[in-house]
Amino acid sequence: MSPRDHDGVRSTLGAERDSTVSLIEALSSRLRSVVEATADSSSDDEHDPEGTTLAVERGQIVAQLDRSRVRLDEIDAAFGRLDHGTYGRCESCGESIGPERLDALPAARHCIACATRNSARRW
User: Fold this and answer.
1) What one-character DSSP code corresponds to residue 96?
2) What pTM was estimated for this model as a whole?
């Protein structure tokens, strides 16, 4: 990978990381608001026909936070692969990960063929 390519990947991963950190901060703030709302003993959202309950909303936010934290870990791992010269190589078969896949998923660990064979893998 040329230094220019290296810098471009680092820039892309940095933008992904910044976006993910911002999302985590926003979700964390929203979760605090929902938790505070549930602490109000007069809050009876279980019988509100207009929308989801606070418990459901809290669950959705927690799930989004979990996924976002995994994404952040994967982005950080991609920075490590970039620093070690293994970025863009499939961790399963060692083949090159296609540029289209890396464009869509810059933190990808596996080529499409290996990711397809084991659909439990997220990256």
Assistant:
1) B
2) 0.81
Helix boundaries (H) for the chain = 3-39, 54-84, 99-104, 112-117
Q: For residue 36, which of 12, 57, 16, 20 has the smallest C-alpha distance?
A: 57
Residue 53 to residue 46: CA distance in whole angstroms: 6
User: In a structure prediction context, what are the per-residue pLDDT tens digits for the chain, which is 123 residues long?
Assistant: 665 688 899 999 999 999 999 999 999 999 999 988 877 655 555 555 555 688 899 999 999 999 999 999 999 999 999 999 999 999 999 999 999 999 999 999 999 999 998 766 555
